[in-house]
Amino acid sequence: MRPQDRPAVTLKLATSLDGRIATATGESKWITGQAAREQGHRLRAVHDAILVGVETVLADDPELTVRLPGRPVDQPLRVILDSRLRTPQGAKLAAADTLILTTAEPRPIGAAQILRVAAEDGRPAVDAVLTALSKRGVASVLIEGGGRVAASFLKAGVVDALQWFRAPILLGAEGRPCVAALALANLADAPRFRRLSAEPLGDDLWERYETVR
To answer: What's CA 148's distance to the chain center, in Å?
Structure first.
C-alpha cells in the first residue's frame, strides 16, 4: 500500500530484452513497436502528470502528450526535473502546461512554469517533487525517463508500479540502461516487485508489476 499523502507513482519502461533504453549513441526511436507505443499513450491518458528528466528533453525533445486516434482526452501535466535549467527555450515542452522543477534560481523558459524545490545530491529531492505535485492536485504520476530519474525514485522507495514494454532485440552492455546505478550492497536492499501480468503486444512483451513492501 502506498502512503495516501503523495501521488501514486508508476515507472514506465520501454526497453530491449537486456534492459536498454537506447544505443550507446543515444538512438532510441523506436525500440518498441506501434502497439506498445499506443498502449503507452493509454497509460498517459489515465495519469494526472507525466514526468521526465532534462536529459530526456535534451536527447529526444518529446511532447509527452496523449495521442489516441478518435479519442479526445484531457492532457496530463507535463513535468521536467531540471536541476540547472538546461531545458532549451525552443523545446516542445517549454509550454504553459509544463512544470519545470529545479534547484536553481528560477528564470523564464518559454511559457513553462518554473518552481524551485529542495535539493538532494544536487538534484530535485524526490519527496519535494512529490509534495509539489500533490499541491497541484496531482494524484498519479507516470515516470517516462531517463535512467537517473528512474533510479532516484526507486532508491527513494516511492515507485508503486512498473509498466514494462520489452522489445525482442539486444543492445548490449554499451547501450544506455533503463535504471542508473542503485549502489546496492546487498540483495535484500533491492526493490522488489510482484508480476501481475505479461502479454504480447505485437512483437513486444508488456509486463505489469506492483511493488512489494
So the answer is: 10
